[in-house]
Amino acid sequence: MTLAAVNVEVSYDTRPAVHATTLALEPGQLVALVGPNGAGKSTLLRALAGLVAYRGDVTWRGTVLTRLGGRTRARTVAYLPQDPPVHWPLTARELVALGRLPHRAYGATENAADAAAVTAAMRETDTLEFAARSVGRLSVGERARVLLARALAVEAPVLLADEPIAMLDPYHQLDVLGTLRSYAAGRETDSKRLAVVVLHDLGLAARFCDRVLLMDGGAIVGDGPPDEALGAEAIRAHYRVEPFIARNEGEPLIVPWRSINGRRGQ
Amino acid sequence: MSASARSGPKPALVIGLALLTLVAAAASLVIGRDGGGPTFGFGGPALADTILREIRLPRTLLAVLVGGTLGLCGAALQGLLRNPLAEPGLLGASSGAAFGAVIMFYFGFAGASSLLLPLGAVGGSLLALAALYALAGRRGDFLTIVLAGIAINALAAALTSLALNFAPSPYAALEILFWMLGSLADRSLAHVYLAVPLMVPGWLLVAAAARGLDALTLGEDTAFSLGFDPKRTQALVIGGTALAVGGAVAVTGVVGFVGLVVPHLLRGAVGQHPSRLLLPSFLGGALLTTLADVAIRLLPPGPELKLGVVTALLGAPFFLHLVMRNSARAT
Predict the structure, then answer these.
(1) What is the pTM of this model?
(2) Which residues of B touch A81 (CB under 8 A)?
(3) Is the model's pLDDT at B179 over the cut of 90?
(4) The CATH homologous superfamily of the domain defined by B73-330
(5) Is residue A264 part of a domain?
(6) DSSP state of A127
């Protein structure tokens, strides 16, 4: 039971965005995908979701993802883009219920499993209170949580989320990462799942994630438990910042303290 | 929150619209018009059968079929382009179809085989919609779509004028011109038989895109990740609209704005849901078109107003109102 990428390579026009990448991601883990702007994080995530053309193979349990039918693939891999558009002002609940589309036959109305998944996803993202409100009337952060609930409602064994906490207040950043961790660990359900999340907050990535993938220049340059992948040396080399690293209550605390002048690689 | 907001289609809305459409259709069957103005009933019993079967039944059926087509396709195009200003007429589908049909008229194919006229209309409509989507479809932003629609409409109109310019005889030009105004008068059941084989598959294609339209609410990436490839949704809606609107235009000429007004009026009642808008828009389009066609017959004596003229006169200010509200919101 693995999501595997074998020599996955993405180019935009002729410019390589992700160099040949080979990865195996195990369910039960919350994986952070971190790296500076333009490192190729979103592109790699989109390749795993099948949204960009790539060379190489992405497999789930040994099956090539692109060979799955649309709905089977959709039930297997849920994807949350960074700041997706909402074109019609549905109510928050109806928007979350769109996550159940891959489970529903044509013309079928919502069944008990759908309703339960929608309600659970909204409870986990703290959005139940505005279930009946139009999405157009929500704040940016509230909307971001509703969109995350939509992705959770798919109940897919793989969740790929691009910066799901970027717009959230501190309370909800902590809350949502806790939710994602239990989503992956399978505390709420019996089965373990895989969640891959693009993050910019290194401290939260180090505290909440089981594994960190550090990308720079289109390649994975660090991979391992947070303590290994997010060492001071790696942060200096790839983020060009001097980090402040400490521990609080036994957990890592990473704060980018000062930018380091000079070009990358010097 | 109410249970109905949760459970898909709204039975009360659909049943209500269906009943109203039936009432309007019944009215359309009993209200007629002669040189002296509106008439009610069928004249003498000997005439009744002929009038009903040869004149009012085809007219009523076409009003329902064409209106329904325009409402349905308007709702589907709005869902596809994620823009409440999309409409078969504004996007060039109707004028493209008209041009395709005029070409058939022009080369005299319409007389040779009556099937070629609707086929020309479908081809023209398909070309126009494909061009529109290529120009503006991917981003779904309002200005680009409207501008692309204007360009396609202008081109189709120019080409149609060109054909008129070189029309073999003034009589032929006049015939084309009147046909293009859009009317349900003087149609026979043959027209119904011509249009239905195009409309029904068109409706089915559009209906097959329903869940894909819902998925597109969150953009193309999310739609794809939900298992509904936007390219497939696009092909279904554009192909279906071209077939159905092509069939409609081929028998009635251009009847504008029904596809704009109807989905817009009903969107609030279905909670903005693109797929739930489809069936009510079909019924609403059928209802509005039938009522408009009945109203034409109730007008005082004189030359009969063309249906396309009436819908344009009512629809254009409505469109203007939507554009102004839209731009007011944008600033």
Answers:
(1) 0.89
(2) 219, 221-222
(3) no
(4) ABC transporter involved in vitamin B12 uptake, BtuC (1.10.3470.10)
(5) no
(6) -
